[in-house]
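Work Package 4 report. The design task specified in the project plan requires that, given a folded chain encoded as structure tokens, an amino acid be chosen for each position. We show below one input record used in the internal validation round.
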């Protein structure tokens, strides 16, 4: 394991100088890990440390809600690690590819979405080599499998998963031409199959913190949002929402559920009012290379937004929607704010964990 710690304090005014600093940052090829050297706005200080927990590339990642653990998924299963020291706690080994992971808000369960699965009904067995996706549920402490949702061969992969705030329901995003499907966590049975507003492949899904809304991000370029209880479609790109380019790969609701932010394979981040569907902001970062949004997270008070892509992490002040820090780090897969700590955690596809602590001057 490798651990690095860097304390950054910049007194220059953020703006053209930040652009200049970023422009001189050396380009890092895929597979290398850049030192986390933030460009920051003058009234903030950042302490950044990193820990390498594995070398195998990760397709997916999810933090426990308290930030103490991280699950990293790949083509051979997924493993759970302690964030503090990188110790591996348990591993689920399979010949399936783990495309998505989600940790329940109560910390009790981990859900995994796969691709390349086939199902044998006579033995109730699941293995690789097929063309379908499957949703699996595990006990987060022991790693014991709770259930596996039967495969629909028309759904080649499960790219998005989201638990309801009370952890009793799980929404998953079947890739091909559907809306999110909501499952009962206790039984794995389907509660609702949401109807999309138009054609497109479903790449992401999320649940609002108040439990009232479920959103789905599509390729091509659309965000749909539904009433989580009735399944009624409330907003869609064709009427009240502006589409984004290249497919919506990540979504995040604000803590009060009043806003939703969408990130795509290209184009800015878009901020919408969830009540009216009105576009409020289009956020363009200066981080290069911008290879598509991979993760979004609000701080618990809603004052900060972390947006990640394959080039690094940008922190936004949501009161004025301005960037306050840019942290180069390749292939970020997950970000989470730890409540009431001033700490942001991030996990990359190459097994690096970043711990980012900020201080207002």
């Amino acid at each position: 394991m490798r651990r690095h710690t860097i304390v950054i304090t910049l007194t220059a005014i953020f703006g053209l100088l930040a652009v200049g600093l970023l422009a001189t940052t050396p380009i890092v090829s895929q597979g290398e890990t850049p030192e986390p050297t933030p460009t920051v706005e003058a009234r903030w200080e950042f302490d950044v440390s990193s820990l390498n927990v594995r070398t195998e590339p990760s397709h997916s990642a999810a933090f426990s809600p308290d930030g103490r653990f991280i699950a990293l998924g790949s083509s051979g299963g997924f493993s759970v690690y302690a964030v503090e020291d990188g110790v591996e706690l348990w591993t689920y080994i399979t010949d399936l590819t783990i495309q998505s992971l989600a940790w329940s808000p109560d910390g009790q369960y981990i859900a995994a979405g796969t691709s390349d699965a086939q199902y044998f009904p006579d033995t109730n067995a699941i293995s690789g080599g097929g063309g379908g996706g499957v949703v699996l549920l595990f006990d987060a402490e022991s790693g014991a499998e709770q259930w596996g949702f039967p495969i629909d061969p028309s759904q080649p992969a499960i790219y998005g998963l989201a638990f309801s705030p009370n952890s009793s329901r799980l929404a998953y995003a079947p890739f091909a031409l559907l809306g999110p499907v909501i499952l009962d966590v206790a039984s794995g049975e389907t509660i609702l199959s949401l109807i999309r507003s138009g054609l497109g492949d479903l790449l992401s899904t999320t649940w609002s913190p108040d439990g009232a809304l479920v959103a789905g991000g599509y390729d091509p370029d659309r965000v749909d949002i539904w009433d989580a209880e009735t399944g009624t479609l409330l907003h869609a790109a064709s009427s009240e929402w502006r589409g984004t380019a290249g497919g919506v790969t990540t979504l995040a609701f604000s803590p009060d559920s009043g806003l939703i932010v969408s990130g795509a394979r290209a184009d800015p981040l878009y901020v919408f009012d969830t009540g009216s569907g009105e576009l409020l902001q289009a956020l363009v970062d200066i981080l290069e290379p911008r290879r598509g949004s991979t993760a979004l997270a609000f701080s618990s008070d809603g004052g900060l937004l972390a947006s990640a892509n394959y080039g690094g992490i940008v922190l936004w002040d949501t009161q004025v929607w301005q960037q306050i820090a840019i942290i180069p780090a390749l292939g970020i897969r997950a970000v989470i704010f730890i409540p009431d700590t001033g700490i942001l955690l991030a996990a990359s596809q190459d097994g690096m964990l970043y711990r980012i602590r900020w201080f207002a001057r």
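Helices lie at 16-23. Validation will be extended to a larger panel in the next phase.
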